[in-house]
Amino acid sequence: MSFRELRNLTEMMRALGYPRPISVENFRKPNFELVSDMLYWMVKKYDPSSSVTEEIDTEEDRIEFLTQVASEVLAKARIRLNPKKLYAADGFAVKELIKLARVLYKASRIDVLKLEANDDDDDDVSVKSLLGSRVKDPKATRQLSSDITQSGAKLFDLLEAELDVRDARQHALRFLDAISNNSENSSEQKYLERSIKEILQQTQENVEMTERQCEELEAEEKALASKMKKAQTDLERSEKRLKSLQHVRPAFMDEYEKLEKELERQYA
Question: Which residue spans adopt a coiled-coil conformation according to this UniProt entry (predicted)?
Answer without folding.
Answer: 193-262
